[in-house]
Design brief:
This protein is of the alpha/beta class. The chain is built from nine helices and seven strands. The longest helix is centred in the middle third of the chain and has 29 residues. The N and C termini lie far apart (64 Å).
């Protein structure tokens, strides 16, 4: 058997967590393949020592080509960071099924597909790390974001099952659970919700309040309980470097406090707390 490949393949590197992780790992001496749907969006990462590849997690041919390229150059993908994703907001009744499918294609199905593609190489070399970027939103649910939360709850189940299934091959699975991370993510979530919501529909007041609250959380005092993309990148680096990989890593005080609060709060009390913040549609 040849030398073990520890090459890192990261999805969704055009901005935010993916970009910060690519830069941090490359600076730490890892061989990094940064990817995004549009190659021109990540050209700047070459200056940080990253290799760049086009990869669209909703396109199987694109994923296969990127994985094949890394395997030809390195022998195997040693570390896969499943970061690509977005938030589809809106009340569940009014989000078009096309948008629902797009949410799951990006956040769940693409993650499963590329994970399947890299596991063979990891098994052969008896070493690998799968890092799934979940969310504190996989442990609790806010109104108006149920579809996004559904994808992150899915990652909880996928990560738990996969961790057991591949451990015997020398492969670790780590679930990163960021809380409030100040990126363009919130603005995208608000715009996606707006696209799905009829301005004069039965959820109009509710949608407007959700959008305002989302913006307020990311721009107001709550920011102090969050952090920037670099705090997630640091957590990823620590997780893949440790001899004994962690299973779950909540990132930021907002994640740790919110997860604990939800764990300790009965459903009816949680619903009452949500009603105090959101206008209940009626």
């Amino acid at each position: 058997m040849g030398e073990i490949s520890k090459a890192v393949l990261i999805t969704g590197c055009s901005s935010g967590i993916g970009e910060a992780t690519a830069r941090r790992l490359a600076a730490g001496g890892w061989t990094v393949y940064a990817t995004a749907r549009r190659l021109e969006a990540i050209e700047h990462l070459k200056d940080d020592g990253c290799h760049t590849l086009a990869l669209d997690v909703t396109d199987e041919t694109s994923m296969r080509a990127a994985v094949d390229e890394v395997q030809r150059a390195e022998g195997a993908v040693g570390v896969l960071v499943n970061n690509a994703g977005f938030s589809q907001g809106g009340a569940i009744e009014q989000v078009p099924l096309e948008a629902v499918r797009a949410q799951f294609e990006t956040n769940v199905f693409g993650l499963i597909a590329i994970t399947q593609m890299v596991l063979g190489g990891m098994r052969e070399q008896r070493w690998g790390k799968i890092v799934n970027i979940g969310s504190m939103g996989g442990r609790l649910t806010f109104p108006g974001a149920g579809l996004y939360h559904a994808t992150k709850y899915s990652l909880e189940a996928i990560s738990d099952a996969l961790r057991f299934e591949v451990k015997g091959f020398g492969i670790n699975v780590v679930l990163i659970e960021p809380g409030l991370i100040v990126t363009e993510f919130a603005a995208t979530a608000v715009s996606k919700a707006g696209e799905a919501a009829p301005a004069d529909g039965p959820y109009a007041e509710f949608d407007a309040k959700v959008s305002a609250l989302t913006t307020g959380v990311y721009e107001g005092p709550m920011r102090r309980l969050g952090g920037g993309p670099d705090v997630v990148a640091k957590a990823i680096e620590k997780a893949i470097t440790r001899r004994r990989a962690p299973t779950r890593v909540p990132v930021t005080a907002s994640a740790r406090l919110s997860i604990l609060q939800r764990k300790l709060t009965p459903d009816r009390v949680w619903d009452a707390a949500m009603r105090s913040q959101f206008p209940q549609p009626k």
